[in-house]
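Severity: low
Component: inverse-folding endpoint
Summary: output formatting inconsistent between runs
Steps to reproduce: submit the following structure tokens with default settings.
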């Protein structure tokens, strides 16, 4: 049984997609063992509690330095014996020690086709504003393994989404979530849990 921790900063729509997929059996042999948010009032924590999932707030600002924050994160992951960390709208730089300990065991969902519209400062509606301002006709979402750089690391899954005439950032954001994010993030978790994902020389390979 794969035990995952989901880290979220906001409402937790991707968390809900994961909860639903586990319940439906489309994510197999996986338990959401812990939900972590950096914000006390994040609705994601309420979603977790409603689903009977342990939830806690670990806010970087509550600790005297980055090392103390890293200690708190690692202690919680150890406590719940986490196999895979899922960043689902988590707007915090992951501590280097955590990335090192969970090498190729932390994944992130980003609402564009990396390497376009990503990196520091590209989050939430800012991503979709960038897509529209450059006139892209196609956007999408990417699940990738996390390394020391923002929105970087081996790409695991991508799904394209059409940009339509008259789209606003809000409309496009919703379409990307519904058509891409909520589909490929659960699929990525299932593939990893099934042992079908390997990373070699910075490239992700998925076996049948």
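Observed output (run 2 of 3):
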């Amino acid at each position: 049984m794969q035990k995952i921790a989901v880290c979220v900063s906001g409402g937790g729509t991707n968390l809900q997609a994961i909860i639903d997929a586990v319940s439906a059996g489309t994510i197999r042999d996986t338990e959401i063992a812990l939900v972590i948010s950096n914000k006390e009032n994040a609705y994601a924590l309420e979603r977790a509690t409603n689903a009977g999932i342990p939830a806690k707030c670990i806010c970087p600002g509550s600790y005297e330095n980055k090392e103390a924050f890293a200690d708190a994160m690692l202690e919680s992951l150890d406590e719940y014996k986490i196999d895979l960390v899922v960043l689902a709208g988590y707007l915090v730089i992951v501590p280097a020690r955590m990335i090192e300990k969970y090498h190729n065991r932390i994944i992130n969902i980003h609402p564009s086709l990396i390497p376009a519209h990503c990196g520091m400062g590209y989050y939430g509606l800012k991503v979709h504003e960038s897509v529209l301002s450059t006139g892209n006709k196609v956007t999408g979402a990417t699940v990738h393994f996390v390394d020391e750089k923002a929105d970087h690391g081996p790409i695991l899954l991508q799904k394209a989404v059409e940009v339509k005439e008259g789209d606003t950032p809000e409309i496009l954001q919703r379409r990307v979530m519904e058509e891409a994010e909520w589909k490929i993030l659960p699929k990525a978790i299932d593939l990893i849990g099934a042992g079908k994902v390997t990373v070699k020389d910075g490239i992700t390979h998925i076996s049948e």
